[in-house]
Design brief:
disordered C terminus, two-stranded antiparallel sheet, 665 residues, 2 strands, mainly alpha, 4 domains
């Protein structure tokens, strides 16, 4: 490839200073023109949206950026104290700093006691004048940095390789068509009815209509800027061979022109994101109400807006590439791979910006349709309050009408109680057969033999609509059986054997342990109970008689006539459950774990009485031990150091104690 002028870190930083200074100068011209037009026609400018058009130019200095935040909040700073430019050559942060953008919340301000007011001409003009002074100060800082970088550039590079701005500057990059929207950022004249109005909804509606116009103007002027950048990317994409490179205009500075395209993308991304975020924060909640009512395109567009303008920024690759070419000591010659890197990063940013603009266009179209259909005030606070008040009044009237009708029914029912024998149609007293009222007419008078109540019939029909439960069906069956005599008493027969039988378990009592006197009383009680059961066998009046039958169980029952008791009347065997074998002593035998636990508890405090030979020998050494030297052969061998003789060979005399060996008394 034909060698061109390389792009080093000084060239990259000089391109940043040059781009920012050109944009600042163009910005100053548009702000001055807007101030002149507003003063001449008494039109109120929107100073907040004019400040948002700054892009990245206020990132040159922290103090400059703080002052731009002050202006964005509608406040003022001391313009007499200008910020002195620093003669340092540092790269500029081309990131989108949008933390200072805060949407106004009318409802939150109203809760805190703040009232929304109409925009004032004087306050907005004062803000624009301070903005103009801040832009001039910013331009001076960029100019000083650029001059300092040129001096260092002249000391390093030969004159033939100096930057020629005429060959680098391109109208497609330095035209800044998006700044033309500043002329449209003016409020329309408020109607005369709004000047003396204190309605907050009317003021908010006025602000929405104007900001809808601001959004339309911004979108219309961003489109041409994206078209110019797309044309620049097409030129880079067309370079495939050396001949294509030579045919390119000013191909020696192609690296510098490509770097300028990336700077333009970074600035345009900050421009679109700052304006889109302000629109979304101001009116996103208001427009979401229409999205919930079935406006699906608006709902989807608002979700995408939150993704593009509120969530974390998506220009990370672009910022990394710009930092790469402006890093201290970097030097990149004209190569195809670098040109393709510029193209790939630029293409991704172009696609992202087109998606963001499409999202804003969708919101603008749906918002315009809402305004054109005269539905922009459907969710205003005053209108919603009136709707709620109207519904409350309608419900109150309905309740009053029902109370009057219920009172009328109550009076008529009292008259009917005084004349119970007069047959009347009570169904005419109720205004509606589907309404159940708790009054006197819902009960049957005791004096009337066969009264009829339409309200009672309706209540009964309403109750029988739901199917009865299983318990209710059982109770009903028992009641009917008791009335027709199908349930009767039967003499209970004693159980003949111990094996369980359902037919023989009725009426049998379990006897556990009784004395001899209890046995005689039990037989008498049994006869009495049998006699009472026989007397009650004729009629069974209610379900309680059925419930007196003893419950069945799975016990082996002992009867009084079975001779299984001793002379004292005590039970000779235990009551066992069904299918359980007879009791044996092995059932109560302790388990191995229980036996181990018993042993541990028994021997936990036991002190051992056995001691090894070494311990006993240590206890007996000393003068008493050595006095037997020469008197005992085993002791002499042990003390003499005989290796073949150990403590184990030492014989223990007497009762197994060393004291016997040493003849202790």
């Amino acid at each position: 490839m034909t060698p061109g002028i390389p792009l080093d870190f000084l060239d990259g930083r000089m391109l940043q200073y040059h781009y920012a200074s050109e944009r600042t100068l163009k910005y100053i011209l548009y702000v001055k023109e807007l101030i002149h037009l507003c003063q001449k026609s008494n039109t109120i400018p929107c100073s907040k949206f004019v400040t948002l058009q700054s892009g990245i130019i206020f990132n040159v200095n922290d103090n400059i950026y703080r002052r731009s935040e002050i202006l964005l909040g509608g406040r003022k700073f001391n313009a007499t104290q200008s910020i002195d430019p620093m003669a340092s050559i540092t790269p500029i942060n081309f990131d989108c700093l949008d933390n200072n953008i805060i949407g106004y919340d009318p409802e939150g301000q109203q809760r805190q006691g703040h009232q929304i007011t109409l925009p004032q001409l004087k306050s907005n003009l004062d803000t624009l004048k301070l903005l103009e002074l801040l832009l001039i100060n910013t331009f001076e800082i960029y100019k000083a940095k650029l001059e300092q970088a040129k001096e260092e550039r002249g000391l390093i590079r030969i004159p033939e390789q100096q930057l020629i701005w005429k060959e680098i500057d391109d109208k497609s990059v330095y035209s800044f068509p998006e700044l033309e929207a500043i002329e449209s950022l003016k409020y329309t004249s408020p109607p005369s009815s709004l000047l003396n109005s204190v309605s907050q909804d009317a003021i908010r509606s006025f602000a929405r209509i104007n900001e809808l116009g601001f959004l339309a103007a911004i979108i219309s002027f961003v489109g041409p800027a994206l078209q110019d950048l797309e044309a620049e990317l097409d030129r880079l994409k067309a370079i495939k061979t050396r001949a294509d490179l030579v045919r390119t205009l000013h191909y020696s500075f192609l690296m510098h022109r490509s770097m300028t395209v990336l700077l333009r993308f970074a600035d345009l991304y900050a421009f679109v994101r700052r304006n889109g975020k302000q629109i979304y924060l101001n009116h996103g909640r208001y427009l979401a109400n229409y999205g919930r009512l079935g406006n699906e395109p608006l709902k989807i567009a608002l979700q995408r807006c939150e993704h593009f303008f509120v969530k974390p920024k998506m220009n990370g690759m672009l910022l990394a590439t710009i930092s790469k070419f402006t890093r201290q000591g970097s030097n990149f010659p004209l190569k195809y791979e670098y040109l393709m890197e510029f193209y790939q990063v630029g293409s991704s940013m172009l696609s992202l910006l087109q998606k963001m603009i499409t999202c804003l266009k969708t919101i603008q179209l749906q918002w315009t349709s809402i305004v054109s259909s005269n539905r922009q005030g459907d969710f205003d606070r005053d209108l919603m309050r009136q709707k709620v008040k109207k519904k409350v009044m309608e419900r109150r009237q309905e309740r009053e009408l029902i109370n009057v009708q219920s009172l009328k029914v109550s009076r008529e029912s009292k008259k009917m109680q005084k004349q119970p024998n007069v047959p009347t149609g009570r169904s005419d007293l109720s205004p509606s057969s589907s309404i159940i009222r708790r009054n006197i007419s819902t009960t049957r008078p005791r004096q009337s033999p066969k009264p009829y109540s339409g309200v009672t019939a309706v209540a009964k029909a309403a109750i029988t609509k739901t199917p009865p439960t299983a318990q209710q069906r059982l109770q009903k069956h028992i009641m009917e059986a008791a009335q027709n005599g199908s349930i009767y008493g039967k003499k209970l027969q004693p159980r003949g054997h111990s094996k369980y039988s359902e037919s023989q378990m009725k009426g049998v009592s379990v006897v556990r342990s009784r004395s001899g006197s209890d046995l005689s009383r039990s037989s008498t009680t049994t006869n009495n109970s049998a006699a009472s059961a026989a007397s009650n066998a004729s009629t069974v009046s209610n379900a309680s008689a059925v419930s007196d039958i003893p419950a069945r169980g799975n016990l082996t029952v002992c009867h009084s006539h079975i001779k299984e008791y001793d002379d004292k009347g005590k039970l000779s065997r235990k009551v066992r459950f069904k299918d359980v074998p007879e009791y044996t002593k092995e059932e109560d035998a302790p388990t191995p774990l229980q036996m181990q636990k018993q042993l541990r508890q028994k021997f936990s405090n036991y002190k051992p009485q056995f001691i090894n030979r070494t311990k006993y020998l240590n206890l007996q050494e000393g003068m008493v031990f050595r006095q037997f030297r020469g008197g005992n052969g085993d002791v002499d061998r042990l003390l003499g150091g005989d290796d073949e003789f150990s403590i184990k060979n030492l014989k223990i005399g007497g009762e197994g104690r060393f004291s016997k060996l040493f003849k202790r008394y």
